[in-house]
Amino acid sequence: MLVVYAEGLVSWGGLSMRMRSMPSKTFLAVVISFLCVPTLELSFVLPVHGALIEWKVSEGGNGHFYEAVLAPSTINWQTARDDAISKGGDLASIASSAENEFVFSLIDSVEYWAFTGAHNYGPWIGGYQIDNTSEPAGNWAWTDGTPWGYTSWAVSQPDNFGAAEHNAHYFVPANARDDTWNDWNGTGLLIKGYVLETLTANSNGDFDGDGDTDGFDFLEWQRGESPDPLSQSDLNDWEANYGAVASLTVAAAAVPEPATVPLLVTALALACLLRVPTA
Ligand SMILES: [Ca+2]
Ligand SMILES: [Ca+2]
Ligand SMILES: [Ca+2]
Ligand SMILES: [Ca+2]
């Protein structure tokens, strides 16, 4: 039976370790590696999120970061926007053909699209109508405040079909993928995701984008998958936002589900490792 006490004392099957007083990082690393084995296996069956990718100034970009976000099933426009804001950004705004091309490159993959037999429906972006007094093409705006100017509407769009289409998404009126848009009602029918745009790299330590900051995110950092690969600043972000150690001790005392035990121990061990004073 696993018991996790405050102050980092771990007891498992009679073996007790006071993590803060362990003599070397090496020994801890061995323990962590052992404990990580089931965790690593689990990581391969979790949903895969798109990575946060910088449109680099050196490559003609604006230095913003973008993520192609895939919903578990379908997602409506408002939920997509709320999710984007919760991640510190907004729905992507497209200010130029170059930005459109870059954003499209992130979603040019079959999993982001839904083909109906005539039309191919891609992810939401931040285009919406402030009001509907000038349909179908008037009074459009970007949620993040970028001035409305450049557009890439598909042929015959926007059409305000059914007098109910006021939100923008990638769309092709054929069995193909392209960087063209449609106005669509915001209900989310057929829409499988959205594109996030943010001014800065994710700094909350949630490197795998699953909504929490845990041991999986440390493994992302270790694999060089954080925004600034293997940087001390990203590691600091992870540690500062980890914040789950205290609640983990409560969760463990309340008898965790068997599948959570390796993760709890791994997370605690990782947190302790990062706090071992250097010689
Ligand atoms: Ca933009
Ligand atoms: Ca409309
Ligand atoms: Ca339309
Ligand atoms: Ca995470």
| Count of spatially separate domains | 2
Radius of gyration: 23 Å
What is the CATH level 1 assignment of the largest domain?
Answer: Alpha Beta
CATH architecture of the largest domain: Roll
The fraction of residues in strands falls at 15-25%
Query: Largest sheet at a glance?
Result: 5 strands, antiparallel
| SSE pattern | EEEHEEHEHEEEEEEHHHH
The overall strand count is 12
Overall shape = elongated
Helix content: 25-40%
What does this protein look like?
There is one protein chain. The protein has helices at residues 25-43, 77-86, 97-107, 215-222, 232-242, 245-253, 261-275; strands at 2-4, 9-12, 15-18, 53-54, 65-70, 90-91, 114-115, 120-129, 140-142, 167-172, 181-184, 193-198. With 279 residues, the protein is of the alpha+beta class. The chain has 2 domains: 2-48 and 212-275, no CATH class; 53-198, Mannose-Binding Protein A, subunit A (Mannose-Binding Protein A, Chain A, Roll). It is built from 7 helices and 12 strands. The strands form 3 sheets. Strands 7, 8, 9, 10 and 11 form a 5-stranded antiparallel sheet that branches. The two termini are 34 Å apart. The relative contact order is 0.18. Bound molecules: calcium ion (4 copies). One calcium ion binds next to loops.
